[in-house]
């Protein structure tokens, strides 16, 4: 019996990982599915590039029509990246009745809802496990393993680059720039790291997760986000003294008919399992009403970890083709209209630089109190200097309320600056 023929678009980091796994595991895959999987075509920009793998020349092409118009090819595996032309290729493939597997978070976050609908109409499958969390099977977990649950919260470290940078800053007292350079040298950060360090990459992934978990589509550009570029060694030190570690968190949490969704650097208590997720690793902390709290941990990127997710999607689609069970993609609906609440309420860490003289704390607490902001703890360290840091941790408060109070406080002569405002993520779920 002939194998299932697939085409791979892109033979970069992930494409090569997929190629290697499909070749290394070909016997096991054949046994699992019943017939082999055969890569018939690979689309690249430059066929002459040395890729360190042995690809027969007749397999390589630079012409997308060689793939789309080939009726033997049943599954298209999109690993080009970026929005365009990846989106157009995926759309065209679905329209032509081909199943699609992709690891493209930008396309799924921006057009996933529309593409899922189109795939359902055309009775083909669209799979995207590799788009979030690299090798961590989070999409399968949310859509299948936790199907019996109402998901209450997702709190994740879903960007390996920023986690690596923050880990170096925390462990070795490095400044942000030095840690970023190190991440670039080690291949954990791209030459242009903007999307990672500004939280855009995490917002793409969070948009996908919220859609799968809550059935609510929040366009990535509508997710309030803040990156890690303003995190200083000082913040990391003060947080450590208070028993916290700073992490870039992606949070989607449901409560009272609303969904709070945001990407922010946050202070995580050292007792929370996410505080121990270091280096380039990712982790997702999920709370379901039946399962309780679950944490998934692993490599969130890389050729083979992401390749592992992509190949498992390919195998899943191949099994569905052979069994004739092409089920429409169903994502969970909460059964209620969830209002998108952006940042919502939270506890905050505030560092003020103030003149070291009596009465300053009293003045500041009065203004905070007037705005309904209550203080959970205060650390003031006089070091015999004129200006000293005053670190406050608030109880739960709406960000707008806090900003109004800080606007007033910043005008005091005794306040040099509001140096930092960070969220504190002390909920377990
Ligand atoms: N890298 C990771 O660890 C990782 C993790 C999770 C998800 N992802 C996602 O996986 C996807 C691929 O990432 P990657 O790191 O493998 O990217 P990459 O290393 O930059 O590889 C991209 C590949 O696509 C080809 N390509 C780009 N534009 C093309 C075009 N217009 N026509 C034909 N071929 C084109 C390139 O061809 P040439 O080689 O000829 O230039 C290259 O082989 C992205 O969506 C990314 O977000 C990556």
Could you explain the architecture of this structure?
This protein folds into three domains: 4-137 and 303-323, 3-Layer(aba) Sandwich (Rossmann fold); 143-300, Dihydrodipicolinate Reductase, domain 2 (2-Layer Sandwich), CATH 3.30.360; 345-424, Alpha-Beta Plaits (2-Layer Sandwich), CATH 3.30.70.260. With 429 residues, the protein is an alpha/beta fold. The model has no long low-confidence stretch (mean pLDDT 95). The strands form two sheets. Strands 7, 8, 9, 10, 11, 12, 13, 14, 15, 16 and 17 form an eleven-stranded mixed sheet that branches. It has a six-stranded parallel sheet with strand order 3-2-1-4-5-6, sandwiched between helices. The protein has helices at residues 13-24, 26-33, 65-68, 86-95, 105-122, 138-145, 160-172, 176-185, 194-197, 200-214, 233-241, 303-323, 360-370, 399-410; strands spanning 4-9, 37-43, 60-61, 73-78, 99-102, 126-127, 151-157, 244-255, 258-269, 281-288, 292-299, 339-340, 345-355, 375-380, 387-394, 397-398, 415-424. Helix 4 runs parallel beside helix 5, helix 5 (105-122) packs parallel to helix 10 and helix 7 (160-172) packs across helix 8 (176-185). The site of NADP nicotinamide-adenine-dinucleotide phosphate has 23 residues, from helix 1.
Structural class: alpha/beta
Largest sheet: 11 strands, mixed
Q: Report the sheet-strand fraction.
A: 25-35%
Q: Uncertain runs with pLDDT below 50, 5 residues or more? A: none
Shape: elongated
Question: How many DSSP-defined strands?
Answer: 17
Name of the CATH homologous superfamily of the largest domain:
Dihydrodipicolinate Reductase, domain 2
- What distance separates the N and C termini? 50 Å
In the CATH hierarchy, the architecture of the largest domain is: 2-Layer Sandwich
What is the mean pLDDT? 95
Total number of domains: 3
Bound molecules: NADP nicotinamide-adenine-dinucleotide phosphate
Using only CA atoms, what is the Rg? 24 Å
Helix content: 25-40%
CATH class of the largest domain: Alpha Beta
| Tally of helical runs | 14
CATH level 3 topology of the largest domain: Dihydrodipicolinate Reductase, domain 2
């Amino acid at each position: 019996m002939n194998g299932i023929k697939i085409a791979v678009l892109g033979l970069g980091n992930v494409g090569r990982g997929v190629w290697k796994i499909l070749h290394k595991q070909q016997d096991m895959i054949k046994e699992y599915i019943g017939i082999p999987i055969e890569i018939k075509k690979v689309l690249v920009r430059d066929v002459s590039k040395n890729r360190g793998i042995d690809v027969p020349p007749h397999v390589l092409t630079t012409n997308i029509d060689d793939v789309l118009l080939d009726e033997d090819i049943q599954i298209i595996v999109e690993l080009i990246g970026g929005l365009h032309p990846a989106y157009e290729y995926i759309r065209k493939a679905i329209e032509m009745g081909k199943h699609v597997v992709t690891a493209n978070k930008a396309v799924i976050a921006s057009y996933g809802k529309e593409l899922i609908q189109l795939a359902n109409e055309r009775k083909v499958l669209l799979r995207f496990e590799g788009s979030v969390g690299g090798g961590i099977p989070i999409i399968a977990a949310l859509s299948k393993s936790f199907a019996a649950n109402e998901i209450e919260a997702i709190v994740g470290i879903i960007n390996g680059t920023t986690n690596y940078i923050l880990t170096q800053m925390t462990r070795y007292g490095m400044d942000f720039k030095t840690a970023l350079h190190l991440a670039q040298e080690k291949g954990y950060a791209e030459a242009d790291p903007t999307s990672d360090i500004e939280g855009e990459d995490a917002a793409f992934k969070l948009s996908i997760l919220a859609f799968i978990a809550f059935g609510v589509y929040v366009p990535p550009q509508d997710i309030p986000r803040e990156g890690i570029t303003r995190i200083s060694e000082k913040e990391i030190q003060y947080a450590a003294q208070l028993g916290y570690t700073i992490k870039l968190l992606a949070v989607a949490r449901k409560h009272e008919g609303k969904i709070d969704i945001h990407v922010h650097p946050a202070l995580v208590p050292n007792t929370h399992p996410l505080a121990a997720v270091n280096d380039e690793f990712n982790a997702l902390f999920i709370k379901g009403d039946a399962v309780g709290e679950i944490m998934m941990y692993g490599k969130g990127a890389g050729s083979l970890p992401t390749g592992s997710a992509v190949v498992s999607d390919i195998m899943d689609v191949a099994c569905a083709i052979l069994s004739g069970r092409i089920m429409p993609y169903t994502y969970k609906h909460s059964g209620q209209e969830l209002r998108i609440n952006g940042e919502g309420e939270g506890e905050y860490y505030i560092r003020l630089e103030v003149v070291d003289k009596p009465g300053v704390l009293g003045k500041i607490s009065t203004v905070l109190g007037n705005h309904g902001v209550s203080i959970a703890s205060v650390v003031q360290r006089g070091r015999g200097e004129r200006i000293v840091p005053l670190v406050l941790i608030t109880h739960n408060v709406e960000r707008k309320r806090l900003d109004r109070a800080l606007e007033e406080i910043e005008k005091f002569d005794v306040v040099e600056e509001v140096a930092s405002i960070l969220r504190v993520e002390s909920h377990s779920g």
